[in-house]
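Comment thread on ticket #2218

A.B. wrote:
> Attaching the input chain for the structure job we discussed in standup.
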Amino acid sequence: MTLTTKTPRVTKRAQFVKSPVDEQRGWKSRYQTYHSFDIENSGKPAIISIGGWACTSKMYEKSARLFAEQGFSIHIIPLRGNATNRIFSSSPTTYVQDMAEDVLSYLKLKCINNVILLGHSCGYNVALRVNALIREREEKITVCGTIADAPASPSITSAFSKIPKLFSYTSILGKMLVKVIDQLCTNDNVTKAAEVTMKVAATVFNFASRIITVLAEKEARQANKEFWNTVMKTNMRELACSLVGIERNRQIAHEDLELLNVPTLVLGYQYDYLVDRRRFRYFSANAGTSTIRSEIVPRESHFTQQSNPEKFVNAVNDFIRRNIQLQ
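C.D. wrote:
> Ran it. Output below, let me know if you need it in another format.
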């Protein structure tokens, strides 16, 4: 069931915001690209859409526009250093913390004080960190709910499907490659060897993913293909840095999940080969909130916001209607 409202006037903006993290470190100032779909006098919490590893903002624009048509202002924030984002990346040890600082700075800059944090894949690690920072610093920002869209926390690469053997083999290979890349990186630097290994890993998964998603919907296969084509064109050093940074944040993500005290929706997909098939049990067992709902969407893969935005938005809207108090 969807939220039915009169279609509001939607204003789309691309914004370029300097990173306070980079400026504080004395690095040459770069800009991060944010896309927003603003609604005049909405009264509803703003949805903060934090992108996944190597994903462009384009991947979230269809779902963002649908949310906007339902009366939600929505802001798309891609991960730093990934896929056409012009901001500097961070060291592997500070990546997720710096990303969360980026998001928090943006909320304060725009005076956004009532939010739903929507994290796709690795972006949910960042959403958890943002929520934790808001609590720790007693910021005047209300988080009224979170959406975990195919969340990669606490383990970045694993398996989920009704074809467990094939997906498990892919999971083992993926974990091995991530571990190798991690070991090749120092705390403050991504080595050339890590870059090369990242390129090998991306090439392997580019082809393997097309085999694994062969039974998924046509749109899901196309979205998967577009994602990996983008990966192959992105700076491998930046991708390795963010991948290792998220991997090294696993324990922090676990601790942040325990602090979660707001209604949370966990969305998974039948042919999602990138996240853990035990994630629902993990989230239910470790999330601090008592209001947690899990849903598996059939015949979809990891990028449903692009391949089937209507189904994604309907699931989120239904959860918001039932569990989050709107003005």
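A.B. wrote:
> Thanks. Noting for the ticket: The beta strands are 10-18, 31-39, 46-50, 74-77, 114-120, 142-149, 264-269, 292-297.
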